[in-house]
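Protein Record: Sequence and Backbone Structure Tokens
======================================================
Scope: a single protein chain, as residues and as a discrete description of its fold.
Tokens: labelled as protein backbone structure tokens, with as many entries as the chain has residues.
Position: the record begins directly beneath this header, with no further notes in between.
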Amino acid sequence: VLDCTQMLIGEGLDGPHTNNTSIQAFTVSVKDTYHMYKKLGVNAYFVLQVPNQKIDPHRVYRFRGNVSNEDLLAASVSLKDHRLYQKVANDVFKGILPNSNLIDFTSVLCNKGVCSIGKSNHPYYIDDDHLSENGAQRLGAFIGQYL
């Protein structure tokens, strides 16, 4: 499982800030946002989180021309871990929103059980959870169906 810092939220600044209050506050926020747009007559799309990588790609690509397939595989998050890490948030979205309003890039960014951090000559990420220009370009044709 990924080693990521857990961020807890609540309905107020004073807390409590627990797993349960975080899930509740997130659920209320997603519902409120969806219903606000629906009331305005806007067909809003919600984008699920792209896979968080295990490490910052700079640790793999720095000072190297091309990165080996073994290095890429070792640095890349597995599809199983990606799904596990995003399960709570994705379950909230899927429990509130129609499938037609959800955009999930997993099928574009993950292949054969691995969500690759990049190709041998360039990363798909600028850090562990933000796509680079190369990574974003991979999504072009997929996102076109929603525009």
Observations:
- The helical segments are 19-39, 58-61, 69-75, 79-96, 106-109, 133-137, 140-144.
- Residues 19-39 form the longest helix (21 residues).
- Residues 1-5 have pLDDT under 50 and may be disordered.
- Residues 24 and 92 are 9 Å apart (CA to CA).
